[in-house]
Each structure stands twice: as structure tokens, then as C-alpha cells.
Design a protein that fits this description.
This protein folds into two domains: 35 residues; 220 residues, P-loop containing nucleotide triphosphate hydrolases (Rossmann fold), CATH 3.40.50.300. Helix content is 38%, strand content 23%. It is built from eight helices and ten strands. Strand 9 and strand 10 form a beta hairpin. Helix 5 crosses helix 6.
């Protein structure tokens, strides 16, 4: 049977060795196309990301580079720790990955969307659909009780079942008996549990946690971390965790180290 390449032209014939080589190339291209279709895309990816700030005249009006040439891709379901000393740019990187801040160079894609091609309203809408946050300082609203704090993102999204979902999530984090308590009456560990319930109640694809145990004692912090990883596993969420704690970072499948604003 003639090679398929033999039929390229009635006047053109390709020797069997060349035709075989073409078939190998075709098979390789087919595998690449298959991989691009079947392999998941990163949930968040940064390319050439940089952030600089202009210092004041008193400081010589120089430019301070906080992050430089950051390339990072996080796949769905991964747990990634971002490690670094204070001032290394960890929290700045987290803010850029969420579109809370704007870079001076590079790009971020969140679930395939080019973040900084969107206006602020569109970025906020994307975050609301895809991202949950846990902060070192809890960021609970003082006038709202635990249940109302967890209900808030659901109500903003127009969910008619906000009360039931918030109550169930608070029960999952062990606060079923503290629904009507206000933040000032809760311990630090309890406040962080409320913050976790609020983050997970929206079923985010991506959880961004910035030093989530930084304001907690060692025992309470360990309990909160166990809870983060349990909920992350149960919900199938992707986790990006900023920490300076080596032991905590080792609980993540991958560690990324920042120093001097660069990935090491």
C-alpha cells in the first residue's frame, strides 16, 4: 500500500524513509494536541510578573522592586506553599494572583482569564466566583455575628439559601453553638474558623491563605491548619498558602521560595 505522502502530487514521490519520518512527526503532533485537550489548564498562572513602587522624594525618588520576573503555575487540586522571609514579597504575590493589586510587568491568568485585561468590576466578579480568602487578621465584620459573616458572600451573590448553607458550614468547622456570637466574643481560633467557613461556603476553586495562623498560638494554629487541609481535601479546592513556617509548608505538595522578590 503506498504511503499517504505518495499522494501529495502525481508528480511527487517521497522515499519510504522520508515518509516514515513524516508519520513520526504527525504522531507527535497528535500527542501534543491530545495533551492540550485532555490536560487541565492551571487554575492560576503568572508569567513575567513584576511589581515596583516609586519611593518618595525624601528617599531619592528611586524605584523599589518588590517582585521580579515571577513565573508560577498552579494546577487544579494542588496545595502550594509560598515561603520567604518578611519583606520577600509573599503577600504582594498573593494579592497579584487574586487581582487585588496591579502589576508593573507581566500577566496573571485566573482559570484561563487574563486578569489585567479586565476592569476592576470584572476582576471582582471573577474573584467572587472562583476565589476564597483567609487572612492573618481574620477580616470579620464586627457588627455581624458569626452566622451573618458567613452568610454575607452568599447574600451578595443572591443565594436564597444563604442561611442554611452558612449554618451548615459553621457546623462543619465546629461552631454550631456559636452562630449568634459576635467577633469580639470569640477567641482568635474561633474567629479564624468563622473566616474559613466564610471562605469555603462559596465553594471556591482556589483558596488563598495569607499567614492564616500568624495571630494564633501554636496549639490553636495547628487545629486551624488541620481544618484548612481537611476542608481543602473535602471540597477539592486548590490551595496557595503564604507562610514563613517550614513545617506548615511541608504539608503542601509543593514549596515555592521567594527571596529578594524572585523565585529561588
Amino acid at each position: 500500500m503506498p504511503y499517504a505522502a505518495d499522494r501529495l502530487s502525481p508528480k511527487t514521490r517521497i522515499v519510504p524513509a522520508a515518509a516514515a519520518a513524516l508519520q513520526v512527526v504527525a504522531r507527535a503532533k497528535s500527542r501534543i494536541l491530545s495533551m492540550s485537550v485532555n490536560d487541565p489548564q492551571p487554575i492560576v498562572a503568572a508569567r513575567g510578573l513584576g511589581k515596583s513602587v516609586r519611593l518618595s522624594e525624601a528617599d531619592g525618588a528611586a524605584t523599589l522592586a518588590i517582585l521580579q520576573d515571577i513565573d508560577l503555575a498552579v494546577m487544579p487540586g494542588e496545595a502550594v506553599a509560598i515561603l520567604g522571609a518578611s519583606g520577600s514579597g509573599k503577600s504582594t504575590l498573593l494579592g497579584l494572583l487574586a487581582g487585588l493589586d496591579t502589576p508593573t510587568a507581566g500577566s496573571v491568568r485566573l482559570d484561563g482569564e487574563e486578569l489585567f485585561a479586565l476592569d476592576e468590576d470584572a476582576r471582582a466578579g471573577l474573584r467572587k466566583r472562583l476565589v476564597g480568602f483567609v487572612f492573618q487578621s481574620f477580616q470579620l465584620l464586627a457588627p455581624l455575628n458569626a452566622l451573618e459573616n458567613v452568610m454575607l458572600p452568599l447574600e451578595l451573590a443572591g443565594d436564597p439559601d444563604a442561611g442554611r448553607k452558612a449554618r451548615e458550614m459553621l457546623e462543619r468547622v465546629g461552631l454550631g453553638a456559636r452562630l449568634r456570637h459576635y467577633p469580639k466574643t470569640l477567641s482568635g481560633g474561633e474567629q479564624q474558623r468563622v473566616a474559613l467557613a466564610r471562605a469555603f461556603v462559596m465553594r471556591p476553586k482556589l483558596l488563598l491563605a495569607d499567614e492564616p495562623t500568624g495571630n494564633l498560638d501554636a496549639a490553636t494554629g495547628a487545629d486551624v491548619i488541620d481544618l484548612i487541609f481537611r476542608l481543602n481535601r473535602e471540597e477539592g479546592t486548590t490551595l496557595v498558602l503564604v507562610t514563613h513556617d517550614e513545617a506548615l509548608a511541608r504539608r503542601c505538595a509543593r514549596q515555592v521560595r521567594l527571596a529578594g522578590g524572585r523565585i529561588q
